[in-house]
């Protein structure tokens, strides 16, 4: 057990918001990524699920927009609903035929994330490689795109972007732009990874996967990183503000409204399409997440 006696949030936030991007060096020595990924997979288990397919003529509007904006044909996407046992509402996934992530890859890795984290993703989309070096990217709309079979750490990173934008509505969005986040960063000597130095969004997301690891893996982050204290204020702040959201267990109580169901082909005749899938969130026990106007259209890339 590691006794951590640091103070979180003791510096006045507004006065110490830092200019520019995170500039502290990455952890030295860096933590072992292989052990990190294995620890997550050993302790975040798949969630039992079932799935069913849409008819060939329909697609969620946001999946269609992602396809057309990247020169992909919407007709090359398979659309399917995944029903996890811990949520009364399914998720609609969109997979391109040439994606490096299979349907099973998508269902398995997404289902390993704690359900309250998962709830901050609207649609999971799998495509061929679209951006040189990018593994995944997430929109402020809640849509997450993977370009290959993602590691669990990458999935937690991507979901953390959506948490940054949406999970703490009482604070500025993204939360990583706030004095609460940046004043705690100022108390650490390092950034979790070199990639976390890209900008505040990436620092938060890289910290996020560490924060989850520390909670779910026996021995915490210190079990693989003796220098855990170099970034402790960051991952403890992530844990402290998000609380049970990042812990396994429970059932979903928040979801994005799904994007509108539209024809894959703009010139399709309704009579040729078959029955239109009803993709609305119906449960009265689920609070709908709304995108704040000031963050509409934002996107964050993961280049791991």
From TrEMBL:
The keyword Signal applies. Residues 266-279 have a biased composition (Basic and acidic residues). InterPro entries: MetalloPept_cat_dom_sf. Keywords: Signal. It comes from the Eukaryota. Residues 1-19 form the signal peptide. Residues 256-279 are annotated as: Disordered. GO terms for molecular function: metallopeptidase activity. The keyword Signal applies. This is Conidiation-specific protein. It comes from Cordyceps javanica.
